[in-house]
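During the practical work, I selected for study one protein's amino acid sequence and its backbone structure tokens, as given directly below:
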Amino acid sequence: MSASSLLEATGVAKNYGAVAALKNASLSVLPGEVHALMGANGAGKSTLVKILTGAIRHDRGTILVRGKAHLVRSPADARRAGLVSVYQEPSLIPDLDVLANLRLTQTPVEPFRNWVRELGVPDLDMRDNARDVPLAIQRVLDLARALAIEPDVLLLDEMTAALPANLAERVLDVVKRQSRTGRSVIFISHRFVEISALCDRATVLRDGETVGVVDIGPGVEERIVELMLGAKIEKARAAQRQATEASAHGEAGTRIAVRNLRVGTKLQDVSFDLKNGEVAGVVALEGQGQDELFAALAGSTKPSGGTIEVDGRQVRFSHPVDAVRAGIAYVPGDRSEALAMQQSVRENIALPFSAAFRNWGPIRMKQERATVQSAIERLQIDTRAQREVQRLSGGNQQKVTIARWIAADARTILCFDPTRGIDVGTKQEIYRLLRQLAAQGKSVLFYTSELEEIQLACDRAIVIFGGKVVDILPVEIADEPALTRAAYGLSRDAKADVGILAETASSEGARP
């Protein structure tokens, strides 16, 4: 170990029965360093973070903090040692309000409030139940709670994955400030642009083992991908080539027509068509109405105005079951919302359609198993731990949520940030799958918080700002600059915006 290392883990291993989550993981973090921890889903990143912060115990290996062996038995032990994590999924207790959640972890309230404001949430009501707080804001609250404890090492597991661009920027600024004060950050992200902008070095895991440590610099992305994927890299590249080949939907008929849709105060007036054989992307900053749009189409929220037509017939959904009966399936970004975590892969995939295999009696298991197995093979789901879905990696869990609706033969799939927290290889598989579904005539509405995904998977981009559709861009011109401008309510023509802003400033300056 280097004498200057703040945290060092060597030979760490963790098994769950026959499944090896970690085989031989090592990590060394220097004071004031932002250190990336990278690897494909299932490589062991989250397991290592949970071991370092006491959420789970390792079977073998040593952990040194400031050069001394440290046995972390619980998150409280980790906090006392200066190690605090923000995990991939929100850790707030849903049925407690924000203040009660702070008391559970003995978090000082005023520093927490200050960090919440610093992270871009100025109007938080501490009496709100955690379940009523949007997912992105829950992530911000988790981070503010960790920062309020003033850790020496902050571990961020896919912190920006569920955040819109404006909140993600705040997080990245805070990470930079932490490193400037001599504190260290272990940063897990699948966004190379964030790794390049923030990190000093990266440790790469593959199949539960550390396979390399690299300095961050120009051109390092290709080296990291090679380390992450190993022999799988050629397969991933082929998948990427397939994903970028957009299938033309031509003059295909309209699957869903949305007209002047309103939901509460967030979604004000949204109209668009979703064609058969189309992947339409939805782009929006946090809180612009995208959540309400998907909730209305999925049947979990009743619109306050406007209409939804499916195959030319107006529909009114009172319950998600009504949407499913209309052939519309919803894949949420938060996998825990969709999956029965303690049930098997087969049971989770079969859940929506098992009744179809009944004939006034028991389920016809042979037919069910054949349908489930076909979906598993199509999505290449790793089923080594299939007794319980909670033991699968995040990427494989998300594949299960999509496989469920492929097996049920849904005609329209609503995907809400489905690649959040998923490794680069699995992302490419999902892009390819969406294109294959479109080629079969199915329709996909795909919200993503990562703007580059629009040109990798979609035919068009529907941009929502202030609860309204402000632009619909063909994929050929839907690059990140164009989408960013539209998402902030700006026109495609930058000169026009400058003129408008100058005119506004002039008129304001002329007021008495």
